[in-house]
Amino acid sequence: VTDRHHVSDTSDDESHQSEMPALRRNPAPERAATGLTASLRFEDMSSDLLNSLRTLADRFELRFGELPSPLAVTSPGPDADTTIVSQALARILAHEHGSYVLWMGSDWLSGATEQAAARADEPSLLDVLANKASLSSVLVPDSQHQRLTHLITGSIPAGRGHMIARSPAFEQLLALLNDEFDHVIIDCPPLLGAGHGLALLPRTAGFLLVVRHRSVSIGQVRQANELAAPTQNVGVVVTDYVTRVPSIVRRLLGD
Amino acid sequence: MTIQDQDGYGAEVVRAKAFSLRALEILFRHKIMFLLPIVAFTALGFYRASQVSPVYQASAVLSTASNPLLEEQLVRGVTLERFESPAEGTSRIIGEQLRTAAFTEEIVERVGLSDALEAGLIDLDTVRENISTTADGSSLLSIEATWADPVTAYQVVNGVIETYLEYLADTAASDSSEAVSFYEGIRDIALEERTERQNELEQYLSTLPAVESERDRPISVQLRIDELTAQISDADERVGDAERNIDEAHLSVLQSRSNAGRSVQVIDEATVPTAPEAALPQRVAAIGSGFLIGSVIAVAALLFAALLDRTVSAPEDLTSLPGVSLVVVVPPERRRRTKAARRSRRRTRERADVDVDVRQIESAAT
After folding, report:
1. Residues A143, A43: contact at Cβ < 8 Å?
2. How far is CA B95 from the centre of its chain?
3. Helices (H) and strands (E) in chain A, counts
4. Residue among B17, B28, B330 whose CB faces A244 most closely
5. Which residue among A81, B54, B212, B323 is least crowded, i.e. fewest CB within 10 A of its CB?
């Protein structure tokens, strides 16, 4: 991978530099939208989730400036809603902030075959890094928002994820995408256990933690936060939050 | 949706709030679990209340103008330093004596409950629990006893008074009693010595030959007889002295006992109660104590559960962590189904049903 990546190749850099603006302004994918992108519609998302993320983004911008990019949406442990949260955030940034956003999954990092439905003959991220396919071949425009683009990593052999994440080619690819898109949102695997999210985190500028209410311990969140340092914590999204404490009692406690 | 950040909150305040919310969350999630001990112990209290039987109370009022067992207390200026009135002192002494087995057993014996005590039907603690003394003012002392039957309650009050008076007299006359014992010992020794000398004299005389006149005895014999006779007289004199002292000591004992007896006067004698006491306060106390114990157990369990639960329970759990600046919460999808949304869906279904009915009617008409 490291020997044959075309991103670091000087001659290819020029072609990419000329290619990316076109991708950004007017995505012209070589592949049709898959089932994944079809599920990413506003109306399919919880309005509470969208509102929470809008507020989070606004508060962060007020206090610290723009959201860092690339931004990893991750969790301390498994069974978190990182995919939905990352897709919702990408959609908000694209649709409401008017930003050009790239969303990419990273199941390949933990050994899972992402895009199980993808055909073996379709180009993958590995092909792009190996200079066997152009970058535009793995970029898929969103069917709902023109400013949102998905990076389809395709079929990647198990065990190659860590090599890809640690390769200079991937780092340069991320830098290139970060230059071309206003925001790069990565659906990152969990940070603790066998999630391998820590391998990807150094390539990002910030991370958003997603935890499920009453299923993750405070210690796990603290540990994940400490392991992720010095990457900036953008915030924590607590999903499935259900409180039985009556609102009047919460008000008495200062909520 | 809730937004939390660290602005305006001290870390301690945030942690305290987080702990409170965690405890409340556990409480409202497991209401039954925490209500169970309260309900169970309150039910136990109701059971105990139902077992409360009416009791009879007898009381007597004593006047204790002074107490020979109490040291004289000094009043300095206008400040009373550790001042204890005779009534309070007497009440304290009776309370202390009740904690001893000898005093309580004496009461039981006077009341005539020794057989019940030996049979195990009652114990000394039962007797103690049913006796109370209260100082009323500086000199009045009230002694109360409760029992299941009125006569025993009356007897217990009298038994306490008699036993205390006996104790008081014995203690007040203890010095004189010791003097009696001392002089009795001296008298016994003198009597023994006198008897010894008398026997010796008789034995000596029996060994002497018979003479017509005492003057016929040799001088040495006469001297020996005079010596033994003098010793007998000396012993007699000591016995007499001891008995005089004994009489004086006995008199002192009687005076001390009399003085002790005069220090306590029965103002209102105990009477046999004619009606039982109201059982309501005891029943309320039984129920209240059950509720209180259950509540304490429930609160302790709640605090223990809150300390053990380390899952993310509230946004405040995370805002106190270093590096976490913003926390947002997202309710689950199903929680968003408000009444309005359900009503809207129901109307949509109803409209659809009406449309189907209209189409069916139209198709039937055509």
Report:
1. no
2. 8
3. 10, 7
4. B28
5. B212
pLDDT tens digit sequence for A114-138:
444 455 667 778 888 888 888 888 8
pLDDT in tens, B43-55: 999 999 988 888 8
Give the B window 324-343 contacts with A, CB below 8 Å: 324-333, 335-336
In this prediction, the answer to ipTM > 0.85 reads no
User: What is the arithmetic mean of pLDDT over B132-140?
Assistant: 88
The Cα of B291 is separated from the nearest Cα of chain A by a number of Å equal to 24
CB spacing of A221 vs B314 below 8 angstroms: no
How do residues A72-91 score in pLDDT, each as one tens digit?
A: 999 998 878 888 899 999 99
Residue among A48, A216, A232 with most chain B CBs within 10 A, to mutate: A48
> Helical H runs in chain A?
10-25, 35-38, 47-64, 82-95, 125-129, 161-166, 168-180, 197-200, 218-228, 247-252
Nearest chain B residue (CA) to A223: B321
Size of interface A-B (CB pairs under 8 A): 121
Q: Which residues is A237 bridged to in the sheet?
A: A210, B328
Per-residue pLDDT tens digits for A217-233: 999 999 999 988 889 99
The phi and psi torsions of B140 (rounded to 5 degrees) equal -95, 135
Q: B355: pLDDT confidence band, cut at 50, 70 and 90? A: low
Amino acid at residue number A208: L
B2 touches chain A (CB under 8 A): yes
Is the separation of the CB atoms in B4 and B313 below 8 Å?
no
Q: Mind telling me how many Å the CA of B290 is from chain A's nearest CA?
A: 27
Burial of B216 (0-12, 13-18, 19+ CB in 10 A): exposed
CB-based contacts of A143, cutoff 8 Å, min separation 6: A33, A37, A38
Neighbours of B29 (CB within 10 A): 17
Q: Which of A122-131, B175-184, B194-203, B233-242 has the lowest mean pLDDT?
A: A122-131
Residue of B nearest to A54 (CA): B328
Mean pLDDT across chain A: 78
- Per-residue pLDDT of A36-56, as tens digits, reads 444 557 777 888 899 999 999
- Please count the other Cβ atoms lying within 10 Å of the Cβ belonging to residue B361: 10
CA distance B193 to B199: 10
Q: Place B340 in a pLDDT band, splitting at 50, 70 and 90.
A: low
CA distance linking residue B181 with residue A157, whole number of Å: 112
Q: Is B360 on the interface with A (CB under 8 A)?
A: no
